[in-house]
Automatic annotation (TrEMBL):
GO molecular function: ATP binding; dTMP kinase activity
Catalytic activity as recorded in UniProt: dTMP + ATP = dTDP + ADP
Function: Phosphorylation of dTMP to form dTDP in both de novo and salvage pathways of dTTP synthesis.
Lineage of origin: Bacteria, Candidatus Yanofskyibacteriota
Protein's name according to its UniProt entry: Thymidylate kinase
Residues reported in the UniProt entry to bind ATP: 15-22
Length: 233
């Protein structure tokens, strides 16, 4: 992976399923646009590029074969190919034009397939190999915000969905939580773990917006907590 070399900022919203990352990314987009920032919100996997629709089909096992029939590496290779096209056709062109890119998931989502010690390093290494072989730069987000909460809380939120995909199962949530915390500990310079157990508006005002303050020269900023940012600790 490489540091973002472009003028546009790149911020990722991550965490276990049910953590509220999608809601926070949508709030962030509206907030930035209201403050005059050029920004787009993208999502991984991208249904509109190579392999995206197949991934969603495999997630819900809509055909004879699903992700449940594959190894973690086989599953993630589908994401790697989709991510390479997405990076080339969507993310990099926007960043190069000075457009800020907010992404609902990024390469950090390999954490969804971490099951034991060593899996995280192994999947990240395989991903790097695929990108390098294809000659596609794997751009690291300027910030990766990881929304953390208890698996039980995430499961309660997921019950509201009409159906759950392969990764949204009760037995996987704790493993996913621990994998994201491991990733954040491994890359502290650009990862922030925030408490996502509170109301979505509270999470946004106390954490998401504070990180946006640090990343963008937004107009009308109001210093809170005596002028100290929540995420500067």
């Amino acid at each position: 992976m490489q540091k973002n070399p472009y003028s546009g900022k790149y911020i990722a919203f991550e965490g276990m399923d049910g953590c509220g990352k999608s809601t926070q990314s949508e709030k962030a987009l509206r907030y930035m646009q209201a403050n005059g920032e050029k920004a787009i919100l993208v999502k991984e996997p991208n249904k509109q590029v190579f392999g995206g629709k197949l991934i969603y089909s495999l997630l819900f096992k809509e055909g004879p074969i699903g992700f449940s029939d594959m190894s973690s590496v086989m599953r993630q290779i589908h994401y790697f190919w989709n991510r390479m096209i997405h990076m080339t056709e969507v993310v990099i062109p926007a960043l190069a034009k000075g457009i800020n890119v907010l992404t609902d998931r990024c390469y950090t989502s390999v954490c969804l397939d971490v099951h034991q010690t060593g899996d995280l390093e192994r999947l990240l290494a395989i991903q790097d190999y695929y990108f390098q072989t294809a000659g596609v730069p794997l751009i690291r987000p300027d910030w990766i915000i990881i929304y953390d909460l208890k698996p039980e809380t995430a499961l309660e939120r997921l019950k509201k969905k009409s159906r759950r995909d392969f990764f949204e199962q009760p037995g996987k949530l704790l493993q996913t939580k621990m994998a994201y915390l491991e990733f954040a500990e491994k890359f502290p310079d650009f990862c922030r773990v925030v408490d996502a157990s509170q109301d979505e508006d509270v999470v946004f005002s106390q954490f998401t917006r504070e990180l946006l303050y640090q990343s963008f020269p937004l107009t009308g900023r109001k210093k809170e907590s005596g002028g100290k940012d929540e995420l500067s600790r």
